[in-house]
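LOG
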Amino acid sequence: MKKTHFESAEDILQFAIEREEDAHNFYKQWAGKVRNPAIGEMLIELSKQELGHKNRLENLKLKGSLTPSDSKITDMKIADYLVDISPSEDMDYQQALTIAMHREQASVNLYKTLAKVAPNDEIQDIFLTLVEEEVHHKGRLEEEYDQNILRDN
């Protein structure tokens, strides 16, 4: 998982596919461990979303074309101000959202770093598109956190 050298755009997409698969497995595993059924359902939903991301990347890999979008994605940066939490069987909704936001932010950071060291524009564009995807995922979680945690307090 610590790969930093890529031979081709296909190699990058395979790396991203494996990251999405890891995220899918992480959420699915914890969905089966948590004691709160509502949190388990949320983790199953996140697991399904990651599987959808993986499938999208696999389709893009087959098409051979991936470019950044022109749309602006708002990053609320909520995850930047939350303490990192380890998953546990007794985690609550806030903790589960925090873990998910931190995982998405880690993916954003990874793809940004890889974009900076990309050997050519095509590979850089792929990483920048993956950054957009992860920021979008994190944004949905931050909206959920904002509406159900911050506004409730």
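LOG (cont.) second protein
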Amino acid sequence: MKKFFTIGFSFLLFIGVANAQHVNIGVKGGLNAYSITNNFNIGNDLKLGFHLGLIGHIHFKKPIALQPELVFSMQGSKKTTLNYINVPLLFQYMFNNGFRLQAGPQLGFLASAKTKTNNVQTDVKDNFEPIDFGVAVGVSYVNPATNFGVDVRYNIGITDISKNDNANIYNRGLQIGVFYLFNHH
């Protein structure tokens, strides 16, 4: 199933670039507020962190665009730090005033997982699934005169990231960031 999502995700990205009218690349970064939610809908304390990465912005016929990203993201909970390389593929509806509505799938690749107890850090990567599939929804605004923009997004993990059969655990998080698009029109 995970291979299917990866292949489908790559195919959509390839088709999008091939049919694009205009492509921009850029950089982004910002703050995260994440939690881990289990099957009893109990969230752990919020983990504050950051995200940093690259974005592409692919214009189709107005008002539709596609925004693939490659982002390092600090996630998890207050006691558990889960670092991911996330690859969202956001479909955007662009308004003429610079605002955009966006939603799409996201693949997360677990880079590291650590817990901290009594100032002792322990590697727990083997306790978590290596891939997290989710959905991202949000809004953004870009100022065409400066090529700078702001982005607010909520990421909803769909797959159980725990390797423990007794608990279903999901990533949930809010991201607030800024971005810059090179040669934006």
